[in-house]
Amino acid sequence: ESDTASEISFQCNKHKKTPSIGSHSSDMASVSSVSGSVLSVYSGDFGSVDAQGTVEFALDYDEKNREFQVHVSQCKDLAVVDEKKGRSDPYVKTYLLPDKARMGKRKTSVKKRTVNPIYNEVLRYKIEKMVLLIQKLNLSVWHNDPLGRNSFLGEIEIDLASWDWSNRKLNWYPLKPRSLSAVNGVDHRGVMNLSIKYVPPGSLGKTCPKNPPSGEVHIWVKDVKDLLQLRPSGVDSFVKCYVLPDTSKKSYQKTRVIKRDTNPVFNHTIVYDGFHTEDLKDACVELTVWDHEKLTNHFLGGIRLGLGTGLSYGISVDWMDSTQEEVAFWQEMMSAANEWIEGLLPLRSL
């Protein structure tokens, strides 16, 4: 038997109703809170400036302190962002991929009015060496715009498994356009096995004691395979669920934590009620997998189930970005009321 979470009401202003006993009301009109879903590493202005120039840096691993160090020295011949003023205000940002959320970003100070900035700064990560070796270092250069979106100036990506760790010298590297792996999110994060079902309002008939007065979406998270192994002992994972655009605590549900397993079996069902058929076109079920630790949880990957139109209730949103597989899965559910639709979907960066 699957574990069933408490029922959560899914509502839009035009469908106000009194929440039933044992459920929580969720106001779908709070579209201003949509930014609560997982953010991409790549948030900024791409394409307006051609990548050019070089960056000088060195890599080292401090065995004693278990610390990965990126010594960012300088850049040369960067692109000019503000052509009228002949100006760029560059800084350098680093991530460890694909585990972006685990380590977060590191960045240097901003050097103003120069295309040849000198930093001489060390960006540090506390991380075990064996975990580091399954990562890639993404180092990118950006123009800082305090009043708008920062502009991408170029990047370099290094596979740390093949890095020569005896090389601690500063070396020059050409900056490249945004990498295809970053654009397409091709890094393998595992796959989620799940089933979903839509129960329309009143569709089960008057004789059925469980006939819902409003529509319900059932989400059965069965298991996940091939998760990223962050530690030698494995990974302590759980799944979060939101129905966007509602990112409030009332929309939030999660599974239990499965410890030390890269192939966790959850067998957990979540039910959201208050769904009208027309809401299925504007809502998006976001399921994300996380590694649980005492101080913070680390994002492993996720899926978004919806029509992927980029719009929700007439408003442009970045989270309505479902892949073709995710869209097809959602459409099949919409066209087969009261039937469980089973799927195996790859986890991705969100």
Automatic annotation (TrEMBL):
Per UniProt, residues of the C2 domain are: 51-173, 200-320
Q: What is its main location?
A: membrane
State the compartments where it is located. Cell membrane
The cross-references to SMART domains, in alphabetical order and at most eight, read: C2 (SM00239)
In terms of Pfam families, this protein maps to: C2 (PF00168)
Question: What GO cellular component entries does it have?
Answer: exocytic vesicle; plasma membrane
Presence of keyword Ribosomal protein: no
Which keywords label this protein? Answer: Cell membrane, Exocytosis, Membrane, Repeat
Which is a GO BP term held by this UniProt record? Answer: exocytosis
Highest taxon of the lineage: Eukaryota
Where is there biased composition of kind Polar residues?
A: 1-12
GO MF annotation terms: neurexin family protein binding
**Annotated region described as Disordered, given as residue ranges:** 1-27
Q: Does the keyword Plastid apply?
A: no
Which PROSITE patterns does the entry link to? C2
Membrane-spanning regions, if any? none
PANTHER family registered for this protein in UniProt: BITESIZE, ISOFORM I, SYNAPTOTAGMIN LIKE 2
Q: What is this protein called?
A: Synaptotagmin-like protein 2
Upper classification of the source organism reads: Eukaryota, Metazoa, Chordata, Craniata, Vertebrata
**Gene that this polypeptide is encoded by:** Sytl2_0
